[in-house]
Amino acid sequence: MLTINPKDISTGEFHGYMLGAIAPRPIAFASTIDKAGNVNLSPFSFFNAFGSNPPTIIFSPARRVRDNTIKHTLENVMEVDEVVINIVNYNMVEQMSLASTEYDKGVNEFVKSGLTEAPSSLVKPPRVLEAPAAFECKVKQIISMGDQGGAANLIICEVILAHFNENILDADGKIDPFKLDAVARMGGDWYCRANGDALFEIPKPVRNKGIGVDALPQSVRESVIFTGNNIARLGNVEQLPSAEQAAAYLTENAELKELLTRLKNDPENLIDQIHVLAKQHLEAGNVNEAWMILLQIL
Ligand SMILES: Cc1cc2nc3c(=O)[nH]c(=O)nc-3n(C[C@H](O)[C@H](O)[C@H](O)COP(=O)(O)O)c2cc1C
User: Fold this and answer.
1) Considering Cα of 237, then 239, then 243, then 248, what sign does the dihedral take?
2) Residue 100: CB within 6 Å of ligand 1?
3) Hey, which end of the chain has fewer CB within 10 Å, N or C?
């Protein structure tokens, strides 16, 4: 384990480790305006949602490590306490990157990046027309974490109006992650696209109260075949199938019956083979079947 005290290395180096590890991070593409009316558009991956009543978003334009100056976005929200947080998808990722260029104060990155200004309804900064979602916000508070290069400036925002492009919605009007096609920032120059195999579902454990890994039989808990993900899936069930259900499953499953017969005098191998089979079902999302198989030898 590489263990680092942030005080022992330079801010720039620690920044690299933090951003490499705290990833992927969503990207707030923030449009702001100064008191003279100049528009600014810049991306910030120190960003997230923190609550929905009131809907709260925080992002952080940090002090520049290079020369300890502050970013135009921060200057703007100190002048005009409004911002639109636009969400970035794959179609606009290169334009977003271009907009992160350190242009001179007063330069409009909508123009530089070729993105389109759409008028907001309740705040002065425009939103990005191409963005799949945009949040019009009032800046409630700015918390500065220090006066040295690299210091965070937490801009705490309340969402007062939200826009979602209909083309990211599913038939129920919910946001479809595949249609959203969001991108996120990793360390260095790396990005991540939330689509294809990168997206997967896990049943929420809050809907039921899983039995927990501690309630699994030792042979399952300590199996070298199961991963941590596998045993967590097994521990996420509320109750195990009954002995009757397991017996009925066996009568319908010739392959399993054959395996149990073939390896009945080779118990260690049998356990391994059963675990391999259960693992295949777990990874296909069939936790109930995985349990039916495991119960044959428990
Ligand atoms: C994807 C991405 C994420 C970024 N995240 C941050 C961030 O969270 N905080 C920050 O200070 N700068 C961040 N930057 C750099 C700023 O976008 C860059 O300094 C920009 O020029 C600031 O513009 P401004 O001075 O007009 O506000 C990020 C850049 C990119 C490309």
Assistant:
1) negative
2) yes
3) N
**Site of tokens 């330069």:** 107
- Confidence class for position 237, pLDDT limits 50, 70, 90: very high
Cβ(62) – ligand 1 distance below 6 Å: yes
Report the distance separating Cα 78 and Cα 80, nearest Å. 6
In ligand 1, the atom with minimum distance to the C-alpha of 96 is 31
Closest residue to atom 16 of ligand 1, CA basis: 100
Check if 73 has its Cβ closer than 6 Å to any atom of ligand 1: yes
Give me ligand 1 centre to Cα 120, in Å.
22
- Would you identify the CATH topology of the domain 6-198? Pnp Oxidase; Chain A (2.30.110)
Domain boundaries, the chain: 6-198, 205-294
Give 246's pLDDT tier (boundaries 50, 70, 90): very high
Atom 10 of ligand 1, nearest CA residue: 61
Place of tokens 């019009």: 136
Task: Provide the pLDDT confidence category of residue 288 given band limits of 50, 70 and 90.
Answer: very high
